[in-house]
């Protein structure tokens, strides 16, 4: 399986409708879409010749005009808690990370949507790597394809190792909506991965207009990376807030699950010591979320090299949670998983051929800061 680009169409990245259109365009019956979707995703087959309910003639034709191309795994690491991390190499030399997190009753795959990220949230190491490009639909869904295959080889079970998918890896999914949407459809398709709509979560830093598009296009779970209860602070740690401030973000959140009163949005909130974790911040949050059906998920900050932040201590996190809970906001604290292999939230970095030169500037600033502080220390001594 090579990952070189090719003029042949890569069927891995086509959802049911696109596959139907493909078959019709080459003079075949549309029902072939169901068969091939099932072979590729449900059965994990990447070789047309193994598709035994398709005539030999058609298999040969498919091999000539199409491929099923999956990125190579160049690195696999298991953490002591059962978390897996895979590094996938794309045809252009960029690499992306995918993480599998097993729990008692479910297995969650955290997948990436872009190489790097344009948003540059201050507490996230992906942002510090800069940005290269959007992933194609095939590259997005290949993360699931690879994980399901790998886990079945490791555990000897084929299905159900992955019960949940969260788009919380590298990148902002709603800035790559055209490629993310077909991937979501394949995840939900019974001939694809058959995942439940409540177990596929798109996470966004708040690209407000595309949130409306997402809601109209597909029914999946939604997480919003909130991280701050007022615009002043959010502008600083989630710069996208300057474009789509909290008032606009809360307006779409109020609208989002209007049709289904039982559903709510998960608000992610990374706990940064002394920055966004005081009781006053909690009270501001309560006011902000007054008319929004939302659960809060508090994420202890995961450090990375040269980060300007520290993790709030557990007492502070518990106090913060209690204030929210007393106000009737369902609040959980995310257990940090996989941190011994840098697979925890905000630690996914892949290998980004940075086009923005942001990574270079970041390292230069970090080095300058370090030099300054050791100079100050020397002067004090
Ligand atoms: N761009 C999307 C998808 C990325 S999700 C979004 O912003 O939602 C990445 C999640 O990881 C974010 O919710 C953020 O809360 C979390 N995260 C990022 N950096 C982190 C860090 N250093 N420690 C803990 N969580 C972090």
Short account of what is shown:
The chain is α/β, with parallel strands linked by helices and 381 residues long.
List the helices and strands and how they pair.
Elements: E1 9-10, H1 16-25, H2 32-42, H3 56-65, E2 66-67, E3 72-78, E4 84-89, E5 95-102, E6 107-110, E7 114-116, H4 125-128, E8 131-134, H5 137-155, E9 164-167, H6 177-188, E10 200-204, H7 208-217, E11 221-225, H8 231-237, H9 246-256, E12 265-271, H10 279-288, E13 294-300, H11 314-326, E14 331-333, H12 358-380
Parallel strand pairs: 1-2, 6-9, 9-10, 10-11, 11-12, 12-13, 13-14
Antiparallel strand pairs: 3-4, 4-5, 5-6, 7-8
Bound molecules: S-adenosyl-L-homocysteine.
Structure, described:
This protein is an alpha/beta fold and 381 residues long. It has two domains: 59 residues, DNA polymerase, domain 1, CATH 1.10.150.530; 291 residues, TIM Barrel (Alpha-Beta Barrel). It is built from twelve helices and 14 strands. The strands form three sheets. The protein has a ten-stranded mixed sheet, with helices on one face. The chain has a two-stranded parallel ribbon with strand order 1-2. It has a two-stranded antiparallel ribbon with strand order 7-8. The mean pLDDT is 91. Bound molecules: S-adenosyl-L-homocysteine (SAH). The site of S-adenosyl-L-homocysteine has 15 residues, from strand 10 and strand 12.
């Amino acid at each position: 399986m090579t990952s070189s680009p090719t003029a042949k169409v890569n069927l891995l990245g086509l959802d049911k409708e696109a596959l139907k259109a493909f078959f019709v365009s080459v003079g075949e019956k549309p029902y072939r879409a169901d068969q091939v979707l099932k072979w590729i995703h449900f059965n994990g087959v990447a070789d047309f010749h193994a598709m035994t309910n398709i005539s030999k003639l058609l298999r040969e034709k498919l091999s000539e005009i199409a491929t099923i191309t999956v990125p190579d795994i160049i690195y696999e690491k298991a953490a002591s808690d059962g978390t897996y991390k895979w590094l996938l190499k794309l045809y252009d030399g960029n690499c992306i990370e995918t993480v599998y997190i097993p729990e008692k009753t479910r297995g969650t795959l955290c997948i990436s949507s872009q190489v790097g990220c344009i948003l540059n949230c201050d507490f996230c190491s992906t942002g510090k790597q800069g940005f290269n490009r959007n992933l194609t639909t095939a590259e997005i869904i290949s993360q699931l394809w690879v994980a399901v295959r790998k886990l079945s080889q490791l555990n000897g079970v084929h299905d159900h190792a992955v019960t949940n998918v969260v788009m919380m890896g590298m990148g902002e999914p709603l800035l790559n909506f055209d490629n993310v949407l077909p991937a979501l459809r394949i995840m939900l398709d019974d001939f694809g991965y058959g995942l439940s709509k409540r177990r596929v979560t798109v996470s966004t830093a708040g690209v407000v207009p595309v949130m409306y598009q997402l809601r109209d296009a597909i029914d999946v779970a939604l997480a919003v990376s909130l991280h701050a209860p007022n615009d002043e602070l959010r502008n600083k740690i989630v710069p996208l807030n300057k474009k789509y401030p909290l008032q606009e973000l809360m307006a779409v959140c109020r609208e989002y699950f209007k049709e289904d009163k039982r559903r709510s949005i998960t608000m992610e909130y990374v706990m940064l010591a002394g920055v966004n974790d005081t009781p006053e911040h909690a009270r501001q949050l309560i006011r902000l979320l007054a008319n929004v059906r939302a659960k809060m998920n508090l994420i202890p900050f995961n450090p990375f090299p040269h980060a300007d932040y520290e993790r709030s201590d557990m007492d502070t996190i518990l106090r913060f949670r209690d204030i929210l809970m007393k106000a009737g906001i369902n609040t959980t604290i995310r257990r940090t998983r996989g941190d011994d292999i840098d697979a925890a939230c905000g630690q996914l970095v892949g290998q980004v051929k940075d086009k923005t030169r942001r990574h270079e500037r970041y390292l230069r600033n970090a080095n300058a800061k370090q030099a300054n502080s050791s100079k100050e220390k020397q002067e004090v001594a």
